[in-house]
């Protein structure tokens, strides 16, 4: 996998995507289905913390994105099968432990949390406007799942004229094949592929 070092300046924002308890904890309703062990094996949370510490040290904007719904899912507009599975497990309900963040990635008081009800975090959230109004020109991404929220965010950010870097070691998918295909074949069309140590450097 080719990686490139990118100059990280004050117009860079770090976006941590769906790294919430429901997804990354072994007892999370989604995580316990197989994603959490892969997150642990790849040390995604520790790598995300490395990137988070670096962004905070440079005063880069940090955005925490999560998936969250009303208890009755009235705000879930998607009719895709994945939403049916969420409903079956009563997963990602706002106000519950599942939509909060693991302690290692707990948002600081000055860091914003954007809540989405779909894959693309820019859809109906105000996140893109927030970034553009503050002069952000480059977004650095990490999260789960690689071929869903990370890829969707990279595509949408690229469409909006933002430079994109994906931190490969801050990403994971339930299938190693899905992760590899996204990182090696799809995401390089929209982003520079890097790592948390390179970002921290």
UniProtKB/TrEMBL annotation:
Keywords: Hydrolase. Coiled coil: none annotated. InterPro entries: Isochorismatase-like_dom, Isochorismatase-like_hydrls, Isochorismatase-like_sf. GO terms for molecular function: hydrolase activity. Residues 13-196 form the Isochorismatase-like domain. The keyword Hydrolase applies. Gene3D superfamilies: Isochorismatase-like. SUPFAM superfamilies: Isochorismatase-like hydrolases. This is Isochorismatase-like domain-containing protein. The lineage of its organism: Bacteria, Pseudomonadati, Pseudomonadota, Alphaproteobacteria, Hyphomicrobiales.
